[in-house]
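Much of our argument rests on the idea that a fold can be written as discrete symbols. This step matters because it turns folding into a mapping between discrete strings. The record that follows shows the chain in one-letter code together with its fold in token form.
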Amino acid sequence: MKQPMWKKLVCMGLIVTAAIVSGCGSGEKVAVVNYQTIAMKSPKVKAIEAQIETKNNEIASRLEAAQKQGLSQDELQSKFAEAQQEQAIFLQSKQNQVESMVSAQCQKIAKDKGYTIVLRNGMVPYGATDITDEVIAGLNQGSSSSETKWGNV
């Protein structure tokens, strides 16, 4: 009885995948990082969150003032659209700043400790080393190259 070609390809793919997962990567050291914990515990990340909150309040105040000026509906819509765009750009820049800081610390720890892979928590069910506290400690130690790069965007 002949099997269709796609069944053979699927079986071959499963065999290759099983071989890769089962032993080819046995020399890998895997670490995980919990971004939620970093956001809750890192003073630098909390400071960035405070900057975001301050910016949001500033934008809200400007929009409130614009509403009280008696602008036309079109002008108000234009102000709201500008404010949304400004808020989105600012938020994205701050998210990039946090990501860059955390990534730099992860790379440093991985290099120092010999980890070959660093993933976000939840991507690895078990068997990985959690380096979240080390990342937080690194963020708290002082300026990193990513801080210099991003500054106060």
Residues 73-113 form the longest helix (41 residues). The first strand starts at residue 30 and ends at 33. The radius of gyration is 24 Å.
